[in-house]
From TrEMBL:
<dbReference type="Pfam" id="PF00069">
    <property type="entry name" value="Pkinase"/>
</dbReference>
<keyword id="KW-0067">ATP-binding</keyword>
<dbReference type="GO" id="GO:0004674">
    <property type="term" value="F:protein serine/threonine kinase activity"/>
</dbReference>
<keyword id="KW-0808">Transferase</keyword>
<dbReference type="GO" id="GO:0005524">
    <property type="term" value="F:ATP binding"/>
</dbReference>
<keyword id="KW-0723">Serine/threonine-protein kinase</keyword>
<protein>
    <recommendedName>
        <fullName>non-specific serine/threonine protein kinase</fullName>
        <ecNumber>2.7.11.1</ecNumber>
    </recommendedName>
</protein>
<dbReference type="InterPro" id="IPR000719">
    <property type="entry name" value="Prot_kinase_dom"/>
</dbReference>
<dbReference type="GO" id="GO:0050684">
    <property type="term" value="P:regulation of mRNA processing"/>
</dbReference>
<dbReference type="InterPro" id="IPR011009">
    <property type="entry name" value="Kinase-like_dom_sf"/>
</dbReference>
<dbReference type="InterPro" id="IPR051334">
    <property type="entry name" value="SRPK"/>
</dbReference>
<keyword id="KW-0418">Kinase</keyword>
<dbReference type="GO" id="GO:0000245">
    <property type="term" value="P:spliceosomal complex assembly"/>
</dbReference>
<feature type="domain" description="Protein kinase">
    <location>
        <begin position="43"/>
        <end position="410"/>
    </location>
</feature>
<keyword id="KW-0547">Nucleotide-binding</keyword>
Length: 454
């Protein structure tokens, strides 16, 4: 029986850079300490990787497989929700897919799951590989907000492969943005816990103090731990970068959608597919639209569709600005169209919204993505062709993930960049194996669930 979440009677002094401490209440977080062992003593808590509103994520030592893993401990409330059951089923489906699919290695690896009981309820735990910070965090927090060209091409190609694998497993991701694209770490399974601490620093324990200065109860840990996360500067990401798709908290099986009320996507507003905005049942085509926008983000210096704190109506206007008139069935449903357009279909000059009052077609946006002198005109044209196929209004006409792998941009620029990066990584690994001192490449950092998880 899951304790019902309630307004916490215990109020704590807030600590910056950690989870909301008031979440340690019935239905909330599980109080976790360094050195705790779970699942018949198999997983030992070593450090903290991150946190989100519905979970904390820890670096743990798997004492059976002798490797380090990411242990995500969900809140008791989240563990009781149907969506979390779906997430577990998604993880199992992705783990049992075609082992030989080239996109499999670009999808987060899931290893195990179990449930623990604690003072705040029962908590579902999901064990996966530990990975690096997100491409989105890396890009958004460091000027010039662009990846080196070959690294960007390689990441885009890897994500296209990864999405093809996800769809081959019958799964729709539905939240495929740059903060759910994470850097893969080199293998450090042979490290001891002490070597991990020497490389990343020992966990920083911080006090948990109640506002009324009373002692904390069993519902809260004795201390909180700062995550061992730092972000990689986007301009320093190597061509050999390897990425994985993560963040499957919103994923679903499309064949189950008709059995339930309309699936509501929680995709970032600027990436929302038009069919989702206008209330249609989503299918795998939503991933194609979202990834099309995300590929532009990876390759360029900003988002494809622009907006300051946009709502869905702003996004519809941006879509029209980029691709032209939407489908008539959507136009008839769009109650706010007169906020942007006159009766004759021309743009209003004073809309009262933060919006450019003219069309900015896809070609113009690609030419303005900041790659002058780095991308040839031929590459720009092939990229435009690929994105147009991914961003068709009618979901049935959008290109399938498997077909994107045969696109001219992928064959001429995406795959070559990815293969060059893989060769560089293999050569670097060989040099590392020959080294007498095992050192983790300082270019890499560990993953925070707050990057895009729930």
């Amino acid at each position: 029986m899951v304790p019902q979440p309630m307004a916490p009677s215990l109020m704590y002094y807030p600590e910056e850079g950690v989870e909301n401490l008031d979440g340690y209440c019935p239905g909330g977080y599980h109080p976790t300490h360094l050195g705790d062992r779970y699942h018949n003593e198999r997983y030992e808590i070593v450090h903290k990787l991150g946190f989100g509103s519905s979970s904390t994520v820890w670096l743990a030592k798997d004492h059976i497989e002798n490797r380090f893993v990411a242990l995500r401990i969900l809140t008791a409330e989240a563990s009781s929700e149907e969506e979390e059951t779906t997430e577990l089923e998604v993880c199992q489906a992705l783990s049992s897919g075609n082992q030989d699919h080239p996109g499999r290695r670009h999808v987060l690896g899931f290893f195990d799951h179990f449930t623990i009981d604690g003072p705040n309820g029962s908590h579902r735990c999901i064990v996966s590989e530990p990975v690096g910070c997100s491409a989105g965090k890396s890009k958004d927090e460091y000027a010039p907000w662009m990846f080196p060209p070959n690294a960007a091409r390689s990441m885009a190609a890897q994500v296209l492969l990864g999405l093809d694998y996800i769809h081959s497993c019958g799964v729709v991701h539905s939240d495929l943005h740059s903060r759910n694209i994470l850097y893969r770490l080199p293998d450090f399974s042979n490290y001891s816990i002490e070597e991990i601490y020497r490389q990343f620093g020992e966990p920083q324990q911080r006090p948990i103090t109640r506002l009324d200065e009373q002692l904390t109860g069993q519902e809260a840990p004795n201390y909180c731990v700062s995550p061992m996360i730092t972000a990689e500067e986007c301009s320093q990401v190597p061509d050999s970068v390897q990425v994985v798709i993560a963040g499957f908290g919103e994923a679903f099986f499309p064949e189950k959608i008709p059995l339930y009320p309309r699936k509501v996507l929680n995709t970032p507003t600027l990436l929302m597919p038009p069919e989702a905005i206008f209330g249609e049942h989503p299918d795998s085509a939503v991933d194609i639209w979202t990834l099309g926008c995300t590929i532009y983000d990876l390759l360029g210096n900003g988002s494809l569709l622009k907006g300051f704190m946009p709502d869905e109506d702003d996004v519809v206007a941006e879509i029209i600005s980029t691709f032209g008139q939407i489908l008539w069935k959507w136009t008839n449903k769009w109650s706010k169209k007169r906020d942007f357009f006159r009766l004759d279909g021309t743009w209003k000059q004073e809309t009262g919204r933060a919006h450019v009052e003219r069309s900015r077609p896809l070609k113009e946006r690609i030419e303005g993505m900041g790659r002058e002198g780095e991308f040839s005109s031929e590459e720009m044209e092939c990229l435009e062709d690929l994105l147009r196929q991914m961003l068709f209004y009618d979901p049935d006409w959008r290109i399938k993930a498997s077909r994107t792998l045969e696109s001219e941009w992928m064959l001429k620029w995406g795959r070559p960049a990815m293969e060059h990066g893989a060769a560089t990584a293999a050569a670097s690994q060989s040099e590392q194996l020959m080294s007498t001192v095992p050192m983790l490449d300082s270019d890499w950092v560990l993953f925070s669930e707050g990057e895009g998880g729930n």
